[in-house]
């Protein structure tokens, strides 16, 4: 659908999300079982789960609608999907820094499996004719662990890599949700990749921060054993590429 509402401001965040700000008082969320199913304007629904919209010449499939309060003003974030845990903890096994991987521009998500690949690192990107991105594609194909490249559809490109041998143990710990048991060097690699430090949420998970543990106890109203990991174990389905989630529908 083509979105038209002059009072609203649409701001792309990255390849999977955009933000709605400005005259959000014009929008009414339709909520069912604590899930926002649609956002409605005085003229009717303008964002509905499952539909595809075009924002600043870029298509987004509306799979998640989240309400935010920033500086006492209501905003909404609309996303194709959430970032996977693989994007945070497995992608750094390829080295480098996330800016080099077009994190905020073309990178969509990282997975540990596709329809035909298991125990891998699969990177999904929006297709682009940008010369820098074309060079980037060629560079990825030269990685030692590069396995294959394929196009899930005309909008995306998938790059599949084997797990680097030096990270097989870390990979197995990830599968078990044992984030704090990554090797010391790899923990630092993860922080460097995402430009985070020990005080960020990511650092607090990797190094089992007392601050985060107490915060979780308060939020969940439970007493956590000190040996507990401070992030839930992965959901294999969420870490496996599902083409249905990412496939765009025709604009209405």
Descriptive report:
There is one protein chain. This protein is of the alpha+beta class. It folds into two domains: 72 residues, no CATH class; 164 residues, no CATH class. The protein is 22% helix and 31% strand. It has a four-stranded antiparallel β-sheet, with no helix packed on it. Strands 10-11-13-12 form a four-stranded antiparallel β-sheet. A hairpin with a 2-residue loop joins strand 12 and strand 13. The longest helix has 11 residues. The termini are close together.
Give a short synopsis of this structure.
With 252 residues, this protein is α+β, with helices and mostly antiparallel strands. The chain is built from 7 helices and 13 strands.
Residue share in helix: 10-25%
Strand content: 25-35%
Shape: globular
Tell me the domain tally. 2
Strand order of the largest sheet: 1-2-9-8
The secondary-structure class comes to alpha+beta
How are helices and strands ordered from N to C?
EEEEEEEEEHEEHEEHHHHH
Low-pLDDT ranges: none
Mean pLDDT: 93
Termini Cα gap:
4 Å
Largest sheet: 4 strands, antiparallel
Number of helices: 7
**Rg estimate, integer Å:** 20 Å
Oligomer: single chain
> How many strand elements?
13
